[in-house]
Structures are given as C-alpha cells and as structure tokens.
Fold this protein.
Amino acid sequence: QSVLTQPPSVSAAPGQKVTISCSASNFNIENNFVSWYQQFPGTAPKLLMYENNKRPLGIPDRFSGSKSGTSATLVITGLQTGDEADYYCGTWDSSLSGNWVFGGGTKLTVL
Amino acid sequence: QVQVVQSGAEVKKPGSSVKVSCKPSGGTFSITTIGWVRQAPGQGLEWMGGINTIFGTAKYTQKFQGRVTISADKSTKTAYLDLSSLTSEDTAIYYCATERAGFFEYWGQGTLVSVSS
C-alpha cells in the first residue's frame, strides 16, 4: 500500500519557522508532483502549494515547498497565529493501480 | 475564480445509498477533472475516485470498487458521487474538487453524510 507519512503535529512560536515533512513509502514520487493543502477546522481543504514548490495566487511567500527523492517538505516562515491549521501533502501514485495518495496530515500549533 | 458548490447534508440508514452532487462554476467544466475526497470525523483525507468530464471516464480507488459510481452530466455541468451499501463507517464529509494535472485546485464546501440506524 502506498503511503505518505507526515508528522502528526508540529509547533513553533509566532515569527519562527516550521518544517513539515512528507515521506513516501511503497511507491515512487520522484517523477510526480507533490501538492500541499491547508485545512482550518470546519472548512474545506485549500490548495497551498502545487507542483512541489509553486504557490497559487494569494498564498504568501512565507510558504515554500520542495521535493527531493522520496520526500517533500513544506516550510512556513514568519509563523502567524492564523497559520494554525492542518496541512496535508498529496500526490498521484502512478503505479499499477493509479491512485491519489494523501499524507495523514500534520496539525500545526502556533504557540 | 471557480466556485464549487455541493449538495446539502444527508442522513442515511445503513444499507442505503447516497448521491452527492458537485457543480463547478466560473470555469470551463468540459476541461475539468473532478475528484472526490472524503474525510471521516477527526481523520485525514481519503481519495475515492475521479472523473474526466470530457470523456466521461471514471477511476476509483480499489477500496470503494463496486460501491461507488462517479458520473458527470455535461448538460448541467454537474458531477455526482453515488455510494451504495452504506455503513456507519461511511459517515464522513465528502468533498469534490477540480483536479488539474497533479493537484486539486478548487474544492467544494463539503457534504456531510451521516449513516445511522
């Protein structure tokens, strides 16, 4: 089974930087783009990053993404209390079955 | 700006079926792939399947094969998720989202489906 593993939670103080990892196992993400989604409680997910490191319009440059090998990373700098949310990575598993795979999500707490 | 509007909350009995609709507006439906993602209470995102609205071809994750049907009506520019043989484990929020190559761009507001006897 294809799995994307994220830390369940991360935390940091306002103004600080936080890194959220997304590690693939049992499938290859090296040739596929990773996207990231931000979800506030009670609301739908929102696209935060696409094609590994591209920000949709309106997403501040405090958010950045990267991918290397079998892992992707979301970095948030200059943390704000309004960044407190759940963050999910996702990618297409182009192996035999062909499925979208999401990470389990990371809850960001801004202390 | 594309907006995606889904149908309202549903309460269903175990063993029954539910059909959720999804209507993007402000974009070009005919070149859109629509994906369906569900989120059980307190859990993460789970992709169920999607449909290419040009060709009408649907793809499903193996977990839901045989229980789920995703369809699209070009005339009304609406996509549908049909899930049968419901159990309490299907209680979740069901989201549709427009899918571009490699990411889900615009999401619906979600439809809560509650399954209870």
